[in-house]
Amino acid sequence: MSNYVKEIMRKAHIISDDKTFYDAIKQMIEEKTNSLVVVDKEGKLVGLLNTGMLIAEVVPDYLEEDAIAAHFANEDIFIEDVKKAQKSPIKKFMMKDPYYIQGEASLMELAVLALSNKQFRIPVVDKDKKPVGIITRTELKKVIGEILNIKDKE
After folding, report:
1. pLDDT tens-digit readout, 72-102
2. Interior CA angle at 113 toward 134 and 42, to 5°?
3. pTM for the complete prediction?
4. Residue-range domains of the chain with CATH
């Protein structure tokens, strides 16, 4: 059974903080991932980015919580907003300074960190705060299943 974060983490998909919306969506599609770990020029963790943040960047604020207005908005608005967003720097809409954990941390520390901060994508970093992996809900679910002797059919 796994006891440490480093034993269950998956590969982090990393993007530089000087990239744009276009770069992020392109990388997510090419790497078949829904999240990216954002690093600065030194390779240190500075943020997180997920598809929800990209979608929020292209939906006008006045439509976000108004289902009726959204119903009447046409596709042209969406297309126009996607094209406008493509050059937006990811620094503008990424989650800045996310919670993170080191690989030697226990699974209980990980679970408490995720729950207490309602952040279910947790970057795993080395002593220099450089990403070495990421933990998602999937890894936590698999550990719980392992404890309960539920086998993965992969």
Report:
1. 556 777 788 889 999 999 999 999 999 999 9
2. 45
3. 0.85
4. 5-147 (3.10.580.10)
